[in-house]
What we know:
Blueprint: H1 7-10, H2 37-45, E1 58-62, E2 65-69, H3 83-95, E3 107-112, H4 118-130, E4 135-140, H5 143-151, E5 156-158, H6 168-172, E6 180-182, E7 191-194, E8 198-200, E9 209-212, E10 216-222, E11 225-228, E12 238-243, E13 247-250, E14 253-255, E15 268-273, E16 276-281, E17 296-298
Parallel strand pairs: 2-3, 3-4, 4-5, 5-7, 6-8, 7-9, 8-10, 9-11, 10-12, 11-13
Antiparallel strand pairs: 1-2, 12-15, 13-14, 15-16, 16-17
Helix pairs in contact: 3-4
Amino acid sequence: MAPDFSFMQDSQSDSSGTPADGGVNFDNFILEIEPDPETTQEEAAQTKPESNPNLQVQFKSERGRLLLLLPPAPEKSRNPVYWEDLRDQLKRRLSGGERFLQPHTPVHLIARDRLLNSQQIQEIDAMLSDAQLPLKRIYSSRRQSAVAAATAGYSVEQQTTLGHLGQGQEASRQAMDEPLYLQTTLRSGVEVRHRGTVIVLGDANPGSSIVAEGDIFIWGRLRGVVHAGADGNRQCRIMALHMQPTQLRIADQVARSPEDPPAQYQPEVAYIGPDGIRIALAAEFALADLPANLPTQESP
């Protein structure tokens, strides 16, 4: 049988808010329900990725550049965002018309530690292109992602720490990364940056660029721009089977190919000598001790 609250309708309160008949005044009644601790913990553990900005696709404007930040690798997240979800999130961001997404603005893709293959990178590029946003460069801390990007013809920079893009000076004081191996031909417009040694099993065509804090080895024809020892290491070397670069740079030294190319190309090594960058035949070059009478050709 339901309780009878009819007495409240006829009762009157005094000035203190207490009913004249001593009953309960429901005018200022507040019902408090204490949450179940187990239920609260379960809800906190099941936070949706969309509620956490670090677990979703984001566009960010930083120092005049448009950054596209991807969620972290699924295997390292309590709330993983897999490729299908990532692709859907990016589509929603682009179709939502973010106010700072101006057409023709170059995009820097910050992949963080997420593993991307060539097909996925091309899908991201296609979605950006549909929104008239060109993909300029890819930043990744995963070697496989960097290789996939360079192989697909994109400019790439492999970084151990992916924070603000302007933290290069502090990062350069840290130990160099392991060598980056690329089995591809670098086409015109492709730029590769790495905090270690770069080894390319292929050609570096005119218009391509390699910037490495360590050595640079080209197992093919070098006809682009290369910069070894980018953090100031003057002991770094540049080696190629066919040395015909647009420009050579080692630390703070700059040189270009000799005006008179040799009749027959042989593997050569570029290094910094007493009077600047010099080029020696690889067969006669010793990393540990360079004899004073070693025959070399000086770069202009």
